[in-house]
UniProtKB/TrEMBL annotation, chains A, B:
This is Nicotinate phosphoribosyltransferase. Residues 11-134 form the Nicotinate phosphoribosyltransferase N-terminal domain. The keyword Ligase applies. Transiently phosphorylated on a His residue during the reaction cycle. Phosphorylation strongly increases the affinity for substrates and increases the rate of nicotinate D-ribonucleotide production. Dephosphorylation regenerates the low-affinity form of the enzyme, leading to product release. GO terms for cellular component: cytosol. It catalyses: 5-phospho-alpha-D-ribose 1-diphosphate + nicotinate + ATP + H2O = nicotinate beta-D-ribonucleotide + ADP + phosphate + diphosphate. The keyword GTP-binding does not apply. Keywords: Glycosyltransferase, Ligase, Phosphoprotein, Pyridine nucleotide biosynthesis, Transferase. GO terms for biological process: NAD+ biosynthetic process via the salvage pathway. Pathway: Cofactor biosynthesis; NAD(+) biosynthesis; nicotinate D-ribonucleotide from nicotinate: step 1/1.
Length: 435, 435
């Protein structure tokens, strides 16, 4: 067994972060106080809200962002940066402050999801890894939340590991759980994050045996009558009959992985009931997404296994978040708001705070104040959206995944009813800037 | 610094692989000789060929697929499987054979990309991690190859790390390099795989300084006149004038990251030439994909930086590969082809070999023989597509990334001319089964 150092996150980074650092160290600007903001300019087209995920993973990445000997040797050997920069990197440790939206929170265009305050040098280095985590995990959580919204309380299970990068699969299982999924197929997500995992068998197991009856008997004998039998390898009706014969009416579930799931579920439900297996659940798993789940609302289905469309963000595999310098110190030590002057990519300079404005408990606006605290409205209440995540380099924002999951459920419950509809439209809330 | 064990790949796996194993161990079928095949039923809609990537990473994952003490303790504590299964997993080591398409090879519907022969127990466990790697890496390589096809020899650079999971980013940089990209922004990809990395500065660097002139002077002073200056933070024409004033006509490149890139490139080229900076290159980087690259073919552009659309597979972030049991031993020790009988998911049973059939050096068919070697055609030549990757548990298929890159270039050159067109259509080659 190889023994190695814990995986550092420092090289999960774009080359230019280091060359900018080198040039800034040389010009004397590297240590200017700076404010970076992580946000999205817009939601994916037609989507009405987004869901923040990856916060806990981002905090781990900040903590592990160190340049160990092997990394420094690599950078030196390859002459990526000069010796002054290498010496500075050897002592790197983020010592600034980070506040941001809690994990599981809903977000809208312009929501200041993370505000990172430190020196330019310290904060710029975190850009790539923070964006990677937020862009990926939030894309999955945003898709997952919509699936939960239409599943009507029926459990959704992540089965997408095989359709995405093997490590992205673990993060996807975690993000889906934050957004309300009940379980995952991914064992590493259970080991690392405590996400419940489930699984029974694939078609290969049935095909391995000489007959379907042999396969069912082997599975029930080993995994118990509460297991889920896959009934669509050959003939569904015959398999359902056999499944109840083998497992008895205590059979936990049958799984359908092909065909017209809605029509099949009706037939299978009738057959199960007629065989006395009234408590046997029907799980469906073939190419589901939020639209397919919605279309199965009236079918007698007890759970959804979602794969490809979950782990690829259901058409939007990334969140298009950016990480922008919004303010920095000038020669006299004053903080100056800054923003690129580009025609098609609007940014608002300055350090921001945000609240969700509620009227009778329903969210009505995302209010963002620049270089100030948001002013309250008339007859509305404001819920602050920023939590302290890092203070003076110390990670203070750790929480359980259950806390993030609860935050998501609460934030979703607060959204206008249209959040439950899959109809395309504008963001559910207007983003209102105060300055 | 924390010291931990090297990351094992065994838990990057679906729960049901282990429960199937448990049931098969109990029923006595676990050790039946089995053949699994990794393949795609179809190409993404409109795509005309795909590119295999991830082969080298998959071989690493097979080698690292071990159940160490911490993993076994976890599985025991959580009662994922029974003691008999745990004991078997403790000794797990893949001892079978794997052959498959070389990394960088083109593929078509039904191409048997991997053929895994071993016992059921040994081979089924590899399903999830092999699919994760192949599905992700091939999606990136397939998109990258199309971008290279239309870039007309101009270099393409991967800048997508921030828009995908942080580890997927490293794999994406590697896959894009296999498909012909010249470099990546990702430093971990350089460290782990030797992919060339590049990078200079972002808008934040310009905004950090009091003036654009200060920023340019700082960058050129530290990184040299050969650097690339980002000229669209404020006014492009003024920035180009300033860039040449600061760096001289030896300025390496200017980068445009917004606006109408084609029109801007024409203006900037004229301005650079008029300032005597005839060798200064123009790099463009805003939301590019294969269609945007094609539309810039006549613009005076010297290189493309591609981000989001590369790392998300340009609309197809996964490859839809499956891993199916296609043959297994029966009670008498004979191998029996098997396949699921489902209406909408066709599989062909049996162990396969494949050749690319060529006529006058141009690929004309993907010929797949079942349980036999392909029969040659008339007046055509056949190029075998399988390489031995693992023999008796020994990894024999390791090769350099350069070898994979060369294989891709050769395989692409062999395809019909339509491979260079972005027009949607049917797969370029028919898949012909012989049995």
């Amino acid at each position: 067994m190889t023994i190695t150092e814990a995986p550092a996150t420092a090289l999960l980074t774009d080359h230019y972060e280091l060359t900018m650092l080198q040039a800034a160290l040389a010009s004397g600007t590297a240590h200017r106080r700076s404010v970076f903001e992580l946000f999205g300019r817009k939601l994916p087209e037609g989507r009405r809200y987004g869901v923040v995920a990856g916060v806990g993973r981002a905090l781990e990445a900040i903590e592990a962002f160190r340049f160990d000997t092997a990394t420094l040797d690599f950078l030196a050997d390859e002459r990526v940066v000069d010796d002054t920069t290498l010496a500075w990197l050897a002592d790197y440790r983020f010592s600034g402050d980070v506040r941001g939206y809690g994990e599981g929170e809903a977000y809208f265009p312009g929501s200041p999801l993370l505000v990172v305050e430190s020196t330019f040098a310290e904060a710029v280095l975190l850009e790539t890894v923070l964006l990677s985590i937020y862009n990926h995990d939030s894309a999955i959580a945003s898709a997952a939340s919509r699936m939960i919204a239409v599943a009507g309380g029926r459990p959704c299970i992540d089965m997408g590991s095989r359709r995405t990068h093997e490590e992205a699969a673990v993060a996807a299982a975690r993000a889906a759980y934050v957004a309300g999924f009940g379980a995952t197929s991914n064992l590493a997500a259970r080991q690392r994050y405590g996400v419940p995992s489930t699984g029974t068998s694939a078609h290969a197991f049935t095909l391995l045996h000489d007959t379907e009856a042999d396969a069912f008997r082997a599975q029930v004998s080993s995994l118990g009558a509460g297991t889920s039998l896959l009934v669509d390898t050959y003939d569904v009706a015959e398999a359902v009959r056999l499944a109840v014969e083998v497992a008895g009416p205590e059979l936990g579930a049958v799984r359908l992985d092909s065909g017209d799931l809605g029509a099949l579920a009706v037939e299978v439900r009738e057959q199960l009931d007629s065989l006395g297996a009234r408590d046997t659940r029907i799980i469906v798993t073939s190419d589901l997404d939020e639209f397919a789940i919605a279309s199965l609302a009236s079918a007698p289905v007890d759970g959804y296994g979602v794969g490809t469309r979950l782990v690829t963000g259901s058409g939007h595999p990334t969140s298009a978040f950016v990480y922008k310098l919004v303010a920095r110190e000038d020669d006299e030590g004053r903080m100056v708001p800054v923003a690129k002057k580009s025609t098609n990519k609007l940014s608002v300079g300055g350090s921001k705070r945000a609240v969700r404005r509620l009227s009778d408990g329903v969210a009505v606006a995302e209010v963002i104040a620049v270089d100030a605290d948001p002013e309250p409205g008339d007859g509305t209440t404001d819920r602050p959206l920023h939590r302290d995540l890092v203070v003076g380099g110390e990670i203070v924002g750790r929480e359980t995944l259950e806390a993030a999951r609860e935050r998501h459920a609460a934030a979703f419950a607060e959204l206008p009813l249209a959040a439950r509809s899959m109809t395309r439209g504008e963001p559910l809330l207007p983003t209102v800037y105060q300055s």
